């Protein structure tokens, strides 16, 4: 659809973010485990821009490194000192030489803007508007720029609160800061901005009035407060996180997962759940989790970096760490921790177990309290357990070690040597009985 095409996106990130009280740049603070700047870039990427330009302040090496990791179409430019949003866009302008169509301008600290809204804005430009602005109606218009409209509802000017008359301050419809500008108009006008205003800044918003004066149309796309929430403090970060979580809960339910108590389940930006997955209350998903169809995640489980195949069952109270991979129908029960380990189809690790750096064959059974001793204080070593093997309760498997297919390990064993397929290995003190010892002992102590 041509109305969704954009030429470029400029993401402003030169602000200092002092209210975060953090040594991490504000736009690298995470929502759903992804930096705010990453969320904005993701929304923009839905429109396949030819170029994405991130404008950073001085000493922004961390932001630059993150931006570059997002992909080859991303460039960064430095704005120093920051002299306003129009000045920020001026820094990006040299990279727009070959760009035509809509150019989006967004803020990296406004992370909840959706690709769909950006498509609507780009559509306004592609239908002939010179400028399209994303407007909203906050409860308190405060310091936001006010959107002045003509009788058709089109935008005629954006008035910054500091420069507004009382009559203009009474306008409820405000500028969220997200704008789309037609590329040729932007390139012609961006260096014409003046800073003769209350803040002595170069306002990007002045482009609206300039466009109208030159006979162009400016459009307003409206949205709710939530989508344009700006993050300046930890408290606002938490509000944005809550909005993100609600959206994600809704989207996994729309895709066919059951959340028994949605509000108590926390997702990462990249969590993927199949159809007919059930997630019980109080589950936390960290980054990098894929869950297949018909799997069940029981209450109070913490899961990150894990692959969970169709029909597998996890928890309650399970911890899956990065590299955990459960095959179809595998079961990981309560108080079990799995790290960097494959659990074969139908295998069961039901209670109180640590499995790390291991491979467990199909249909194997790992008894309660069994652990892989994978770490010797210096390096990590692998445990391989064959299919249909049975590891007795409270066994320690000292890696590197292999347990063959179908073998048994007696309960309480400390296994330091490989066990051949089909064998029983017992490695513990033999049981001895001393006839009547206990009875005699009690009698000797009787007063
Ligand atoms: C801006 C808008 C205002 C809008 C409001 C929404 C202008 C002139 N005003 O005002 O209409 O209602 O946002 O929140 O555009 N930035 C830079 N370089 C700069 C200045 C800002 O990169 O030189 C970045 C900041 O990091 C921030 C964003 O641009 O992410 C907005 O800057 P801010 O100073 O908050 O603008 P406002 O005065 O709030
Ligand atoms: Mg602001």
| Ligand identities | uridine-diphosphate-N-acetylglucosamine, magnesium ion
- Average residue-wise pLDDT: 97
Q: What is the beta-strand fraction? A: 25-35%
The CATH superfamily of the largest domain appears as Spore Coat Polysaccharide Biosynthesis Protein SpsA, Chain A
For the terminal residues, how far apart are their CA atoms? 97 Å
Describe the structure.
- By secondary structure, the chain is an alpha/beta fold.
- It folds into two domains: 8-223, Spore Coat Polysaccharide Biosynthesis Protein SpsA, Chain A; 234-425, Hexapeptide repeat proteins (UDP N-Acetylglucosamine Acyltransferase, domain 1, 3 Solenoid).
- 19% of the residues lie in helices and 30% in strands.
- It contains nine helices and 34 strands.
- It has a 20-stranded parallel β-sheet that branches. It has a seven-stranded mixed β-sheet with strand order 5-4-1-6-10-7-11, with helices on both faces. A three-stranded parallel β-sheet has the order 27-30-33, with no helix packed on it.
- The longest helix is centred in the middle third of the chain and has 21 residues, at 234-254.
- It starts with 5 loop residues before the first strand and ends with a helix.
- The mean pLDDT is 97.
- It binds uridine-diphosphate-N-acetylglucosamine and magnesium ion.
- The site of uridine-diphosphate-N-acetylglucosamine has 26 residues, from strand 1, helix 3 and strand 10.
